Amino acid sequence: MWCLTQFAVCTAMRLSEICRIRWDDLDVEGRMVTIRDRKHPRSKIGNDQRVPLLSGPVTIDGQQVDPLRLILDQRRDNDCIFPFSPATVSTTFTRGVASCRTKDLRFHDLRHDGISRLFEAGYDIPRVSLVSWHQDWSMLRRYTQIDPASLHRA
Questions:
Q1: Which of 86, 99, 114, 123 could form a cystine bridge with 12, CB 3.0-4.6 A?
Q2: How many CA atoms lie within 13 A of 116 on its CB side?
Q3: How far is the C-alpha of 102 from the C-alpha of 96, rounded, in Å?
Q4: In whole angstroms, what is the distance from residue 138 CA to residue 4 CA?
Q5: Angle 109-120/2-11 helices, nearest 10 degrees?
Q6: 32-35 and 49-52 as β-strands: parallel, antiparallel, unpaired?
């Protein structure tokens, strides 16, 4: 679960997208992964997108997190890299959060965090939208909660 949680923050992907990634969707050399049928407001099928696996924007517990390394550390006994049911992951995450006495944190909030970290790392709107697949700034803005202290790092 920890690996999946870190991957969600690093990639700003939706849980359903993470659980659908197959080993044959991975391009190790190019550090890319293809997300099949990515959610889109006007169409549901054929929205395949190649997404970069960026190493650098996310640091957790003082360690830089590399999403490609997280993938390569997974067992290869299934066609999917993270072969879990999104509903099961969501339930497990919710229970884990409750056991830490944290309130009002959902798995989808990791997507918000990942997008905010991309902006804090200095990526501009077009580059962040390549990762997040947001079609316009008004939707992307809803996902962005930038830490004011991050301006000192830019």
A1: 114
A2: 16
A3: 9
A4: 28
A5: 50
A6: antiparallel
Letter string b/e over residues 73-107, b meaning 16 or more CB atoms within 10 A of that residue's CB = ebeeeeeebbebebeebbeebeeebeeeeeeeeeb
pLDDT value for 66: 93
Residue 99 corresponds to which tokens in the numbers above? Answer: 């056991």
Residue 122, phi-psi category: left (phi > 0), alpha (psi -120 to 50), beta (remainder): left
Token pair belonging to 11:
């990639």
Nearest to 11 by CA among 152, 132, 144, 108: 132
Tokens 């080993």 belong to residue: 23
Q: Could you report the per-residue pLDDT of 118-153, keeping only the tens digit for each? A: 888 888 888 888 787 766 666 666 656 666 665 565
Query: Does the domain formed by 2-152 have CATH 1.10.443.10?
Result: yes
Give the domain ranges of the chain: 2-152
Residue type, 73: D
What backbone phi and psi angles, to 5 degrees, belong to 118?
-65, -45
Q: Measured between alpha carbons, how far is 12 from 141 in angstroms, rounded to an integer?
A: 14
DSSP, collapsed to helix, strand or coil, labels residue 141 as: helix
